Amino acid sequence: MATNNLRINVVLKKSTYKSIADLAKMNHTSLSSEVNFLVKEAVELHEDTALGCIAGKRDKSKKLISHKEAWK
Q1: What is the pTM of this model?
Q2: Which residues have a Cβ under 8 Å from the Cβ of 34 and sit 6 or more positions away?
Q3: Is the confidence at residue 9, as pLDDT, over 80?
Q4: HEC string of 6-68?
Q5: Among positive and negative, which fits the CA dihedral 21, 22, 27, 28?
Q6: Model pLDDT, residue 1
Q7: What is the pLDDT of residues 20-42, one digit of tens each?
Q8: Which residues of 32-54 are buried (b: 16+ CB within 10 A; e: fewer)?
Protein backbone atom coordinates (compact mmCIF):
# COMPACT_ATOMS: atom_id res chain seq x y z
CA MET A 1 0.00 0.00 0.00
CA ALA A 2 1.65 3.22 -1.19
CA THR A 3 1.20 6.40 0.82
CA ASN A 4 2.44 9.98 0.69
CA ASN A 5 2.55 10.30 4.48
CA LEU A 6 5.97 10.14 6.08
CA ARG A 7 6.48 7.90 9.07
CA ILE A 8 8.51 8.08 12.27
CA ASN A 9 8.99 5.27 14.77
CA VAL A 10 8.96 6.46 18.37
CA VAL A 11 9.55 4.64 21.65
CA LEU A 12 7.35 5.97 24.46
CA LYS A 13 7.08 5.36 28.17
CA LYS A 14 3.98 3.39 29.08
CA SER A 15 2.45 6.40 30.85
CA THR A 16 2.96 8.65 27.81
CA TYR A 17 1.42 6.05 25.51
CA LYS A 18 -1.58 5.72 27.83
CA SER A 19 -2.04 9.50 27.94
CA ILE A 20 -2.03 9.71 24.15
CA ALA A 21 -4.37 6.73 23.86
CA ASP A 22 -6.77 8.36 26.34
CA LEU A 23 -6.68 11.63 24.37
CA ALA A 24 -7.32 9.79 21.11
CA LYS A 25 -10.28 7.97 22.64
CA MET A 26 -11.68 11.19 24.11
CA ASN A 27 -11.29 13.02 20.76
CA HIS A 28 -12.57 10.05 18.70
CA THR A 29 -9.36 9.92 16.65
CA SER A 30 -6.73 7.31 15.89
CA LEU A 31 -3.47 7.17 17.83
CA SER A 32 -1.64 8.27 14.70
CA SER A 33 -3.89 11.30 14.20
CA GLU A 34 -3.58 12.27 17.85
CA VAL A 35 0.22 12.06 17.80
CA ASN A 36 0.28 14.04 14.54
CA PHE A 37 -1.84 16.78 16.16
CA LEU A 38 0.29 16.86 19.32
CA VAL A 39 3.55 17.07 17.36
CA LYS A 40 2.18 19.94 15.23
CA GLU A 41 1.15 21.79 18.39
CA ALA A 42 4.57 21.26 19.97
CA VAL A 43 6.36 22.54 16.85
CA GLU A 44 4.14 25.65 16.74
CA LEU A 45 4.79 26.36 20.43
CA HIS A 46 8.53 25.93 19.87
CA GLU A 47 8.42 28.32 16.89
CA ASP A 48 6.37 30.87 18.86
CA THR A 49 8.89 30.78 21.71
CA ALA A 50 11.84 31.21 19.34
CA LEU A 51 10.16 34.10 17.50
CA GLY A 52 9.24 35.69 20.83
CA CYS A 53 12.90 35.64 21.86
CA ILE A 54 13.93 37.25 18.58
CA ALA A 55 11.23 39.92 18.94
CA GLY A 56 12.28 40.58 22.54
CA LYS A 57 15.88 41.20 21.48
CA ARG A 58 14.75 43.55 18.70
CA ASP A 59 12.48 45.47 21.07
CA LYS A 60 15.44 46.23 23.34
CA SER A 61 17.79 47.25 20.55
CA LYS A 62 15.62 49.39 18.26
CA LYS A 63 14.30 52.92 18.71
CA LEU A 64 10.52 53.10 18.80
CA ILE A 65 8.75 55.34 16.29
CA SER A 66 5.21 56.66 16.40
CA HIS A 67 2.42 55.43 14.15
CA LYS A 68 2.42 58.77 12.29
CA GLU A 69 6.17 58.55 11.63
CA ALA A 70 5.86 55.00 10.34
CA TRP A 71 3.26 55.98 7.73
CA LYS A 72 4.97 59.16 6.42
Answers
A1: 0.69
A2: 20, 23, 24, 27
A3: yes
A4: CCCCCCCCHHHHHHHHHHHHHHCCCHHHHHHHHHHHHHHHHHHHHHHHHHHHHHHHCCCCCHH
A5: positive
A6: 60
A7: 999 999 999 999 999 999 999 99
A8: eebbeeeeeeeeeeeeeeeeeee
